[in-house]
Write a structure and sequence with these properties.
CATH topology of the largest domain: 2-enoyl-CoA Hydratase, Chain A, domain 1
Strand content: 15-25%
Shape: elongated
Largest sheet: 8 strands, mixed
CATH architecture of the largest domain: Alpha-Beta Complex
CATH class of the largest domain: Alpha Beta
Distance between the termini: 71 Å
Structural class: alpha/beta
CATH superfamily of the largest domain: 2-enoyl-CoA Hydratase, Chain A, domain 1
Radius of gyration: 31 Å
Number of helices: 20
């Protein structure tokens, strides 16, 4: 359809008329001048370019408002970011996401008078990471140090609900000084404890746990109740010398208990990676934080009903055929279990979790023939691989999280058992050790236990020994299965006789008793009695694991006739 006009000086009016007529008629419309030249057009077209665009003053004003909000606080606030060597929140989002599908709550706490609270200091929405749909929250540190106001809390609650409905992961970019305490935001009687704000965020995180993956990245201080946000995540990445979290700020700590301390000493990356065990991965800068977040996400499914995606298989970093030489002949001699892992896991796929906490056990996720696998390995280099309370705590949480998200488990057992003594008893070795055994017993993902050397006492229980529901128990020729090690057994069985001896007689008698005891821990005899499923040459272990994880990848989970167990993690 063509419309002739005599006066086409007002281009905006012309475009508006053409767009309205085209929409009314449902067909392309073109406006032409007396000389036949096109003034404006609208209608079906593959690429509109600028044709038919009508931007009214009302829309233009709205777009200007949105642009202002997205810029965040004034430039003087962004200068503070430069001093702290931090990226602006939208730069962080650009680094992590392929694209942002949409945001919600852009106008939260909007005011025409000033830009004090753009987006109420928190950005929420849905984006794509490596092509996967992911929900997110991200604190804007330029807005009152990333503190959380009532509208910000409402935005977080809504995106949490969307993530659960969509069944997609949630990534939290955390840079918040806690709750915003400004009195002008609150009505008399308002608290953090009402039904639909404040605590609802943490309630939702608890309900999301094990349903959809939650990954937290901590870029700054996170204080008071909001410090529960990162610790409720399945995996937490902290930026060294930048991220910190504590139940109270350093200032409040000094005021309340007289302890003078800065935030890094109180709750920095070293504290939570080495002592509390709350942090899974410590990174040097924001770029590495993005890299690690993507890597962890790649091991995880979208939700608990799905399985993690496979990648292209790769050979291990070190030759699997050299494995037997890594494990010493003598059970008391130390070695680094990472030398075993490098011969089993696909090259470049290994990500250790909590490497500085509970170091008697190594936990991490890698791939075997492209399949994600969670590894729980005793570390003979640290206290002989004995299981201490912190190590048990670390392993139990790791196993439980892998089971929640359908990540198969590989146990590498070389332990003299749980540590003994007054100190560990006071630290709860029994209570915390039971969590490890409980997690192993109840995990229903494919589980393969490999006995590499020592498998003593209750240590073999926690490490998925034959009685604790493994799909396969494999043993290497260096394996020793026993109630306790030779040294302890000799003292337990012949302690009274040994007390009467000294010098060379004592040592020669002990050696004689040990040799006698060794006859009962011969792995070939134990394999002949079916105490393990298969005794394999160490050089074949990688191939054996590939085959067995492949066979068990479609293993079904069983319904459990109870509400839940009574052991918590």
């Amino acid at each position: 359809m063509k419309i002739n006009v005599e006066d086409a000086d007002d281009e905006e009016m012309a475009r508006a008329v053409v767009a309205a007529v085209s929409q009314h008629l449902g067909k392309p419309v073109e406006m032409v001048s007396e000389d036949g030249s096109t003034v404006a057009s609208a209608g079906e077209k593959e690429d509109w370019d600028d044709e038919g665009v009508v931007v009214t003053e009302r829309e233009e004003r709205l777009r200007e408002d949105i642009e202002g909000i997205m810029k965040g606080r004034k430039e003087d606030k962004k200068e503070k970011l430069e001093e702290l060597d931090k990226l602006f929140v939208r730069e962080r989002l650009d680094l992590l996401f392929d694209e942002i599908e949409f945001e919600d709550g852009t106008f939260a706490s909007f005011s025409n008078e000033d830009d004090e609270l753009p987006a109420d200091g928190v950005i929420t929405g849905v984006g794509k990471i490596d092509g996967r749909k992911v929900c997110f929250t991200a604190n804007d540190y330029t807005v009152k140090a990333g503190t959380l106001g009532q509208n910000g809390a409402e935005k977080i609650i809504r995106i949490q609900e969307k993530a659960m409905r969509l069944g997609v992961p949630m990534v939290r970019l955390i840079d918040s000084a806690g709750a915003r305490l400004n009195q002008e935001e609150r009505e008399p009687g308002d608290t953090h404890a009402d039904r639909y704000t404040g605590g609802k965020m943490f309630y939702n995180q608890c309900r999301m746990s094990g349903k959809i993956p939650q990954i937290g990245v901590l870029y700054g201080p996170d204080i008071a109740g909001s410090a529960y946000t990162p610790v409720f995540c399945d995996y937490l990445v902290m930026v060294e010398d930048m991220g910190s979290m504590a139940i109270a700020s350093a200032r409040i700590v000094e005021a309340m208990i007289g302890e003078s301390v800065d935030m890094q000493e109180l709750g920095g990356a070293d504290v939570h990676s080495q002592h509390s065990g709350s942090c899974d991965i410590v990174v040097q800068d924001e770029e590495e934080a993005v890299e690690k977040t993507k890597q962890v996400l790649n091991y995880l499914p979208q939700n608990f009903r799905q399985k993690p995606k496979r990648k292209e298989p790769k050979q291990p970093e070190l030759n699997p055929k050299g494995l037997d030489a890594v494990i010493p002949e003598k059970s008391q001699k130390d070695y680094d279990v990472n030398e075993v892992i490098k011969r089993l896991i696909d090259r470049g796929s290994w990500q250790e979790m909590k490497p500085e906490y509970g170091q008697e056990i190594v936990t991490g996720i890698g791939r075997i023939a492209g399949r994600p696998v969670g590894v729980v390995a005793n570390q003979p280099n640290v206290n002989g691989g004995a299981i201490f309370p912190d190590a048990a705590d670390k392993a139990s949480g790791f196993v439980w999280t892998c089971d929640a998200y359908n990540i198969p488990l590989l146990y590498l057992c070389d332990t003299p058992g749980f540590m003994v003594g007054t100190k560990v008893e006071q630290e709860g070795v029994l209570r915390r050790g039971r969590k490890f055994i409980y997690a192993t017993s109840n995990a229903q993902v494919p589980k393969i236990s490999v006995l590499t050397r020592k498998a003593y006492g209750a240590g073999i229980y926690a490490m998925a020994g034959p009685s604790f529901g493994p799909d396969e128990v494999l043993a290497l020729p260096s394996t020793e299965i026993a109630v306790m090690g030779p040294e302890a057994a000799v003292h337990a069985l012949f302690g009274d006789k040994l007390k009467e001896m000294e010098g060379d007689a004592l040592e020669s008698t002990k050696e004689m008793f040990k040799q006698e005891y060794d006859k009962y821990i011969d792995i070939r005899k134990q394999a002949s009695q079916m105490e393990v499923d298969e005794l394999v040459p160490a050089g074949d272990l990688r191939e054996q694991l590939e085959a067995r994880f492949r066979v068990f990848e479609d293993k079904e989970r069983n319904e459990i006739d109870r509400h839940h167990g009574t052991v918590l993690f």
